Amino acid sequence: MVIVKFFASFRELTGEPKTTVEGVRTVGELLDHLSAKYGQKFVQSVFEDPESRRLRSTVNILVNGRSIVLMEGLETKLSDSDSVAIFPPISGGE
Amino acid sequence: MAVGRVHKKGEVDLCKLMEEIRQNLGTEVGALGCFVGIVRGTAKSGERVDLLHYEAAEEAATVLTEIAKEVQERFGLEELQIHHIIDDLKPGEDAIYVVACGKHRKEVFQALVEAMELVKSKAPVWKKEITPSGGYWVEG
Fold it and tell me: What is the number of structural domains in chain B?
């Protein structure tokens, strides 16, 4: 079972701070599962282009605290009890 | 000492914090600097901000402590404290305090700038501006 935490705009979009998902082997499969659960708004917030599966630059996905950009992107493997965080860019300011 | 904490509104008082720090200063300290981040009353769009809603991941305090340690070591400071207020804040209210204590002013000034740069880019903290036309997450 993978634990998924949502922050800021993603928490509002999904309507919950976290959820659990079973039976997914990669981050890509997890996003497919979440897209089916949360619908088009989620898809649009995550993917620049759902066809090519290119992620938006405004979405950050961490697996156990490590960015998937530093791992294998959507092919990053998931194991039971992994923790995934999905959030928008950190609020900067000048 | 390196300290990073998150607070609700009213949990941290700047005057008391400074008093506490000053009471424990070592004899080597010749400079104490403080940065206060304040909620602005105007959004980038020019619209009035009624409220700024802050949200943080539970790891935020740990990240702030790591930032404080990194900056303290880099500038050879005696003390670096970061206190972020995570709550619904009105314009004019304080959102963050960074206090640096070191031998000389130069490293203290630089440390304050560096600490804030790291907080803005690394700390898992998000803010939503509540304006008369709606609420908008401030991103990037």
Answer: 1
The model's confidence at residue B41, banded by pLDDT at 50, 70 and 90, is: very high
Confirm or reject contact between A18 and chain B (CB < 8 A). no
Task: Note the pLDDT of residue A42.
Answer: 96
User: What are the CA-CA distances from residue B66 to residues A2, A69, B6, B75, B123 (Å)?
Assistant: 27, 22, 13, 14, 10
Dist CA A30 CA A13 (whole Å)? 17
pLDDT, average across residues B67-77: 96
Helix (H) / strand (E) containing B79 = strand B79-85
The hierarchical CATH code for the domain A2-87 is 3.10.20.30
Phi and psi torsions of B65, nearest 5°:
-65, -40
Q: Kindly report the CATH number assigned to the domain that includes residue B52.
A: 3.90.1170.40
By CB atoms closer than 10 A (0-12, 13-18, 19+), residue A31 is: buried
Amino acid code (one letter) for B89: L
pTM of the model: 0.86
Nearest residue of B to residue A10, measured between CA atoms? B137
Q: Measure in Å the smallest separation between the Cα of A53 and chain B Cα atoms.
A: 22
- If phi > 0 it is left, if psi is from -120 to 50 it is alpha, else beta; for residue A64 that is left
